[in-house]
């Protein structure tokens, strides 16, 4: 029986691609034994078991660039995670190790390298995180989604696969009535879906909350507004949230239905989100987060804008312009169709399949 360890996480952008890879590995090799390793207290510790896979947690977190008290524990956490990773690898004895980014993947793949276990890393973004940049020299294969990644990784190791997404996202909507009922929506109204990831996006939430009067006047439009776990207290009871045509949710458990019902989508420009938007082929207004390394979300968004596949709204302009940007796109069916057609051309529906094949090829070697 082949054993595979998948490590990393911290955000949905790391966790959901990891689960998609695991699902595809099981499809190609049903008797594969897969173990996840994540960071204690992070999203993977909840989502991975729900997906049907075992997971072990490491006591690890990132090093903050600003001098904080949290940095004093970084060295202890690093040593602790390396020791525990050594124990996990020794006990599980994987044939291959996969890292998807995030702090937990650093310790596990470092140990795998020391034990001469072949490894593969999957980099979702146009600008790699610190962990993957460090691991790149030791990994046997590096699966990427963007061009120009030879700036960060050895070119001979790079494989352009695209980003894997949850299989449920691209499924066609078979029961529209059930989806509408799930969100409390009306059939006759146009639907806008606004979200900021599993944790939420503060500036997007502020932009929606600041325009209650405008949303109230858009009587033929209904809004699915995912505020995120971090911002439930700040926005769940604000004036906009009380409007009858606004449905506020902390977390979306049926992203496939939310995507399918949406006429226009407003969101960040993370790598996983971009990959999902390409698959569902919906008109999108991207508001890149300014709080990411090398402003890579803006680069992600611009890659779509240059191909007339999405609209771009800056984070600073969101509060003043978000309503007009949404209204203009909702009222321009020709522009909507153009965005749909163009973004669909960028979809890579077989990314998980390609990555799984590379993982299993390392086992055979």
CATH topology of the largest domain: Rossmann fold
Helix segment tally: 15
SSE order: EHEHEHEHEHEEHEHHEHEHEHEHEHHH
Major sheet description:
7 strands, parallel
Give a count of the beta strands, DSSP E runs of length 2 or more: 13
Task: Give a structural overview.
With 365 residues, this protein is of the alpha/beta class. It is elongated. The protein has 2 domains: 3-164 and 349-364, Glycogen Phosphorylase B (Rossmann fold, 3-Layer(aba) Sandwich); 176-344, Glycogen Phosphorylase B (Rossmann fold, 3-Layer(aba) Sandwich). The longest helix is centred in the first third of the chain and has 19 residues, at 74-92. The protein has helices at residues 12-28, 44-50, 74-92, 103-114, 130-135, 176-183, 202-209, 212-217, 232-235, 255-261, 271-280, 296-305, 318-330, 333-344, 351-364; strands at residues 3-7, 33-39, 55-58, 96-99, 119-123, 141-144, 158-160, 190-195, 221-226, 246-249, 264-267, 284-286, 311-312. It is built from 15 helices and 13 strands. The strands form 2 sheets. A 7-stranded parallel beta sheet has the order 3-2-1-4-5-6-7, with helices on both faces. Helix content is 42%, strand content 16%.
